[in-house]
Amino acid sequence: MSSGDLPATVDVVVIGAGAVGAACAYFLARDGFSVHVVERGQIASGTSGACEGNVLVSDKEAGPELDLALYSLGVWNGELAEFGELWEFEPKGGFVAAATPAGAAALRDLGVRQRAAGVEAVDVAAADVHTYEPCITDGLTAAAYYPQDAQVQPMLLTAHLLRLARGHGAGVSTGVTATGLSVDPRSGTGERRVTVVRTSRGTISCDQVVNATGTWAGELAAMAGVEVPVLPRRGFVLVTEPLPRTIHHKVYAAEYVASTQSSDGALQTSTVIEGTRAGTILIGSSRERVGFDRTVSLPAMREIAGKALALFPALARTRILRCYHGFRPYCPDHLPVIGHDARAPGLWHAGGHEGAGIGLSVGTAKLLAQSMAGLRTDLDLTPFAPARFSEVAVDAC
Amino acid sequence: MEADPHRFTLDGRELTARPGQSVGAAMAAAGIPSWRTTRKDGRPRGLFCGIGVCYDCLVTVDGAANQRACLVPAADGMALTTEPPALGTPALGAPALGATPPGPPAAAPADEPFDVAVVGAGPAGLAAAVAAAESGARVVVVDAGARVGGQYWRHPAGSTAQQDAKRFDELRRRFSTGRITHLPSTQVWFVEPPARTARDDRGPATLHLVPTTACAPEIVTAPAVVTARRLVLCPGGYDRQLPIPGWDLPGVMAAGGVQALLKGHRSLAGRRTVVAGTGPFLLSVATQLADAGAEVLAVCEANGLSGWARQFGAAARVPGKIVEGVGYAAAALRHRIPYRTRTAVTRIDPDASGARAGRVWLRRIDGDGRLSEKMLPPLDVDLVALGWGFTPSMELISAVEAQTRVDVDESLVAVVDASQRSTVPGVFVAGEATGVGGALLAVAEGELAGIAAAGAEERLAGRVRRLRARIARLRGFAAAMHATHPVPQRWPDWLTPATVVCRCEEVSSDAVRAACDELGAGDVRTVKLMARPGMGWCQGHVCGFATAKLAAAATGRPLTVDDLRPLAKQSLCAPVTLAGLADTL
Ligand SMILES: Cc1cc2nc3c(=O)[nH]c(=O)nc-3n(C[C@H](O)[C@H](O)[C@H](O)COP(=O)(O)OP(=O)(O)OC[C@H]3O[C@@H](n4cnc5c(N)ncnc54)[C@H](O)[C@@H]3O)c2cc1C
Ligand SMILES: Cc1cc2nc3c(=O)[nH]c(=O)nc-3n(C[C@H](O)[C@H](O)[C@H](O)COP(=O)(O)OP(=O)(O)OC[C@H]3O[C@@H](n4cnc5c(N)ncnc54)[C@H](O)[C@@H]3O)c2cc1C
Ligand code: FES
Has domain B6-97 been given CATH number 3.40.50.150? Predict the structure, then answer.
């Protein structure tokens, strides 16, 4: 299937075959649009092939991102539930651990705000933590259990969403790079809008373009002359030897919530641990703003290892077989960019989800499809509007 | 005189081992084919590669889970268990394996880098270390093995049954004069290449080390980190494998692994054997098996031998090799070993127990590996040795991001210049990792690399010239051998959908196909992400080549460097404990 011929004309070209692009392709094709996906690498060769696949509500402060997470959860558990097995959807629950009195207090407060927003959060006393996680350290001050948190296998998710989209008539071309967007006056109305996607293999005429290029969304937006400030934030993950089930939930340190919201450029690490179906344990994660630097960082790995050990001392002799890293697509205000870009009519964005793009992919895509069909969206997209960064359209190139 | 045997237990059962014998070799020799089952499908597993590459032989040793039985030397009172210990409280407070050992390391003052660090003490590494040291460099050698010699010289000291024994004795003598620091039983798990600093464009390289097994006492005195101005990487290689139905049954082993057991541990893993694959090495394994008393029912060579006549020019320039080949052929004749060309083992069935190889099916094949219609009568066996030549260990070379290429035998190898320099400044590569070519070539390349790394090329211009001529001659011979013994292009025809491709993650050939056909994976990295081949313990060492071939075939392309690189690249060159990683200097 991969690199077949490009269609001459479609309703929508989706650029990028990560989780977000795949989800967009699926919902758009299902809702009756003719869709073609172009991906310069392979399926999930961007950040979606280098992440962890958590579907979390627990790590989000009350606000628009949490609303989107809860909405997405409804999609995962609702119309996509029948496919869950394909991408190993597992409602394993989240477990957040605090190790200081201050951390405990902050966690309790967070839980109060989250519950008000509709999250199920169960306070766990320090004395009870081992009933949830038998191997966790004794030195905790408090914990919280989030039964709604889940996990998927992100590469399988991406591949199967595209497969399902193909079932609804969508096409997918890998190894094809979008190199330019033509923004032309429409005959009749004279309205300037995106009409053609130029690629390394030829052009596709279309009505709409979805920019689902993740961390590279800024480059693509620039092709239409608009600015979308998405930048890379590198993260490392350690992978252990396969073990019998040792870690039962998605477990992380309470400080993790703070680090997801931080804009600090220096190396930060906070513990995020989970077992996978393959028996390996994934141990994350770091956050660094170092551009697209691909060198394996010993300091990052070391810090992740040290903190994981503090949370799970029993893993001391567990071996790490490999590590990997990816580049989270983040915006300065840590909110994704979703919806039509009024500055370049015909161009839509779906990206910038930072460390949550897998979990948020399906909600994002469903809302985008509703909006493109001219329907009222189930959730207000205003907080994610592309135009929030600048109202001024740059001249098209 | 033979020293007293060691006594150890497996799940309480008493076993004995000769001094120096690994627990894995001792168990195999005692007729125990397997001692663990796989996570997913509960398949029995024992020895496969025999040299620490495949991780099939994992066993719990004195409470330390997942140790490679083929590498752990047996010791008195050692308690092995097939079940891993429960994770949790027992490991709490246990010494962190792989952690920085306490106290100042005896051998390496941390602030003074070595001139040259050699990784690997096989033929290439030994020659490199000796040449560099004799050229005046301060040299450290890090090697995963308990004793020097690599995959070639593995007989216990003083043995005369060794190939090239004189050359080895000579190298070992020059190696042991006291000026080379040797860190045995130590694996490099991470390498930082010589860094570019403001003052010196070749700041020292750093090698991060872990003990090869949790049971190697030597490591206590070894530093967890070694720094050096130049690196000579001589990681050697291992048997290349092509999956076939039944190849993951206990009793099926890599041909080199069978030989490693015989030579290094004096252990015979079976009595009725078939040796199959391609290359002259098969005959050598067969004669050694016969010499040790095993019955060799057949040697199946996938290729025809008419190729040798065409390649005779190259071979004739290396008469030693011809003599060696004739020697094996004569021995095979003497043992009346049936030698079948254009024949492959295409299926292995279990014996009545279901847990061990029992019967092999042979098929005639054509030059491309197409199966002939007629089945040959099956043979009942208890040991099958499979080998498709050797292929280099590329993780160290990939880790320093040295350029790689596909060699004539379709192996990924390092690009080097006429002085064994890789494309990374200060990093030299010698031996199998520059192209599989045998021990003599490895020695010559190692010597040249050692001289160049010590900066003595100009001073030793004459010797360098002679070495280059020798390398060219041996390379020519190797190329001729590869041309005669290619991997059959139609090997995927031999697979059934259920054939295990990745032994670690138990990925079937159908799962690889589905990743390509149904999920749209267009390259091997994507196949790996979707179907998990190469994601397990061995990190793609064993299945990497086969997976790359299958992925390329599925997309209808010939194999390229891009197919091989993703599975050769490893973020860590060896497993390291979480505590060891946390303590990294
Ligand atoms: C270490 C780490 C851990 C993470 N853990 C989680 C987690 O647990 N849960 C979670 O929800 N999220 C997690 N994330 C975040 C998540 O991975 C991302 O938010 C998500 O993958 C983004 O998906 P995407 O489809 O927007 O981008 P990508 O997956 O990067 O897809 C974009 C695609 O666009 C292609 N592309 C770019 N430019 C062009 C062009 N010009 N033409 C054609 N194609 C182009 C790229 O090749 C790429 O394939 C993690 C990230 C990291 C780094
Ligand atoms: C199992 C086996 C049996 C063989 N038998 C024969 C034979 O009978 N006849 C014949 O002519 N050829 C044989 N060969 C081929 C022959 O061994 C090689 O041609 C020769 O050994 C190459 O020398 P080398 O120095 O390049 O590598 P090797 O001899 O393989 O030495 C490499 C050394 O590097 C070490 N090493 C690798 N990575 C690391 C790391 N990360 N950290 C620390 N140490 C590391 C290895 O443990 C090994 O000790 C055999 C090969 C194998 C694999
Ligand atoms: S047999 Fe021990 S690692 Fe392969």
Answer: no
pLDDT digits (tens, 9 = 90+) for B486-497: 999 999 999 999
Phi, psi of A347 (to 5 degrees): -100, 130
Answer whether A298 sits within 8 Å of B192, measured CB to CB: yes
Asked whether the beta carbons of A298 and A251 are under 8 A apart, the reply is no
Atom of ligand 3 nearest to the CA of B257: 1
Tell me: pLDDT of A392 over 60: no
CATH topology of domain B241-388: FAD/NAD(P)-binding domain (3.50.50)
Cα distances from B133 to residues A364, B74, B128, B130, in angstroms, run 63, 34, 8, 5
Same fold, B114-237+391-482 and B496-568: no
pLDDT, residue B104, reads 34
Task: State the burial class of residue A392 (Cβ atoms within 10 Å of its Cβ: 0-12, 13-18, 19+).
Answer: exposed
* Mutational test site, ligand 2, from B53, B71, B152, max ligand atoms within 8 Å of CB: B152
Single out the residue of B431, B425, B433, B447 nearest to residue B396, CA to CA.
B433
pLDDT at residue number A388: 87
pLDDT tens digits for range B187-235: 999 999 887 554 555 678 999 999 888 765 444 455 689 999 999 999 9
Who among A2, A42, A317 is closest to B579 (CB)? A317
Q: Do B50 and B260 meet the contact criterion of CB atoms below 8 Å apart?
A: yes
Atom of ligand 3 nearest to the CA of B54: 4
Residue A268 CB-density burial (10 A; 0-12 exposed, 13-18 middle, 19+ buried): buried
Q: Where are the domains of chain B?
A: 6-97, 114-237+391-482, 241-388, 496-568
A214 contacts A354 by C-beta, under 8 angstroms: no
How far apart are alpha carbons B46 and B62 in whole angstroms?
A: 18
**Interchain CB distance below 8 Å, A242 and B537:** yes
Q: Which two tokens mark A262? A: 């931080």
Ligand 2 centre to CA of B120 (Å) is 8
**Nearest residue to A305 (alpha-carbon basis) of A257, A273, A262, A265:** A273
CATH class belonging to B496-568: mainly alpha
Q: How far is the CA of B256 from the centre of ligand 2 (A)?
A: 10
Q: Does position B320 have pLDDT exceeding 70, yes or no?
A: no
Quick one: pLDDT at residue A183?
87
**What value of ipTM does the predicted structure carry?**
0.90
- In A20-111, the DSSP E strands lie at 35-39, 54-55, 94-98
Give the separation between CA A91 and CA A70, rounded to whole angstroms: 14
Q: Is B114-237+391-482 CATH 3.30.420.10?
A: no
Domain architecture of chain A: domains with CATH: 9-51+155-229+333-388 (3.50.50.60), 94-147+231-330 (3.30.9.10)
Q: Which residue has the tokens 């941390």?
A: B110
Q: Rounded to two decimals, what is the model's pTM?
A: 0.93
Nearest CA to ligand 2 atom 33: B120
Q: What is the CA radius of gyration of chain B?
A: 23
- Nearest residue (CA) to ligand 1, atom 35: A16
pLDDT at B110: 54
In a mutational test of the pocket of ligand 3, which residue from B67, B68, B187 has the highest number of ligand atoms less than 8 Å from its CB?
Answer: B68
